[in-house]
Design brief:
The protein has 20 helices and 13 strands. By secondary structure, it is of the alpha/beta class. The strands form three sheets. An eight-stranded parallel β-sheet has the order 2-11-10-9-8-5-4-3. A three-stranded antiparallel β-sheet has the order 1-12-13. It has a two-stranded antiparallel ribbon with strand order 6-7. α5 crosses α17 and α14 crosses α17. The chain is globular and about 85 Å long.
Length: about 525
Amino acid sequence: MTIINSIWFWIVCILVVVIIRDVFIQKKHTISHNFPLVGHLRFWLEKIGPELRQYIVANNREELPFNRQERSWIYASSKKENNLQGFGSDQDFNSPGYIFIKNAMMGYNAPADHLSRKNPGAVPANKVIGLYHKREKPYRPYSIVNISGMSFGSLSAKAIESLNIGAKIAGCFHNTGEGSLSPYHQMGADIVLNIGTAYFGVRELDGSFSMDKLIQKAKENPQLKAIELKLSQGAKPGKGGMLPASKVNQEIANIRGIEAGKDAFSPAFHSEFKSIPELVNFIERMAKATGLPVGIKSAIGKLEQWEELATYMKKHNQGPDFITIDGGEGGTGAAPHAFADHVSMPFTFAFAKVYQIFQRHELADKIFFIASGKLGFPEKALMAFAMGADSINIAREAMLSIGCIQAQKCHTNTCPTGIATSSKWLQSGIDITLKSERFNQYHHTLVKEIADIAHACGYEHPCQMTMDDIELSMGDNNRTTTLAKALGYHKTALVFENFNTLFECPYLGGKEARNRLSP
């Protein structure tokens, strides 16, 4: 009893001290001043509110950015668990924009020697990046699904390494993000080097671009397959970025070419070009110096400069080899609410408008289009392919596959899963061997299901999907309409020979995965 009494004595003392502090000392919080102790309970409940809603309050389909059903499908797929659904769909088929995929009466039945039977998770892209502009080193991605740009520094070393090893096993490419090429990106996967406005990794100390450093990177890294020049991204188009000083250790500083212990700012705009001709000239200079295909990544708003770009490309036969369209719903980068919520168009409208511009200039079949923006699910990916995408990039879905719980703490350096933090302690729980295999299995499942549905529609490859193969619910009187009617165009038909021809291409990437599948 003495021990218990002593414990209660100290508890009462602590509570009295808190009450005295709240009422007589602190003046910042009216709630805790007027209601000591109870006020603290209110702040604590508010702090864990997102977690309470995530696990207790929200139903399977209402949460954003990814609802429980979507997260569960990714988790189950990455762990080789049962990701099937029983007792029918719980979706509202009449909700506006609901996707219906039109299967054929008799689908495509692959022959016994078809490579998709050997590895149903391997589907190369139908187009070759850089072939039209006669780049020295054209590139055909081994996979139609690849990892979008996520920088080392924003993501932890172990997270980047897990994703890269997983990408090597899967055969997909890994975009570095604008934080440049780190040692953790160099575990064997194909790499796309992302260059942002701060020119991290290919810059001088004053922030200016260095062509010599870019050439050196290309020479030293044979896995580097393409360069992506980032004009903007879905989370914050027209807004610069900032990696807080707490995350900028000496290792990150060395990789990015900046000072340690200081905020790492990305300007809102590029200093190397200010017009479309200057942009194209910059792209051509990088392509000529490295031999690599060069593309651009952008969120979409006003279309006048896209029209100007297409006109210039048609006239001069120069410009980006690929275009990554990032929907406004993208979000691995932390951003102000107004930018994240209201600036730039969502993927469906953004892609449709840009694609039609290049289609009018007879360039749609010559440029490689990459789609990005919550597309890491079979039905959404197939809609993107039907619209004209040649591959899709996934970011947050890839994070979820290696253990992200959507805590939305990415910008605080306190990510509880160790994925979006520089904390060594929080990272210590990441088993790289396990997590890399989980990404690989998620990727395999996603690609397989995309291919399976394409076969059900009567096609050998997802690139053959048309806009008449997708119907959208109009949300009124149970009506539906085709994607072509809803968006006002048909995609340009592509030349597709057969599946095996893709694997025989001399420019095919994914060396390790390719060798495992060689006929």
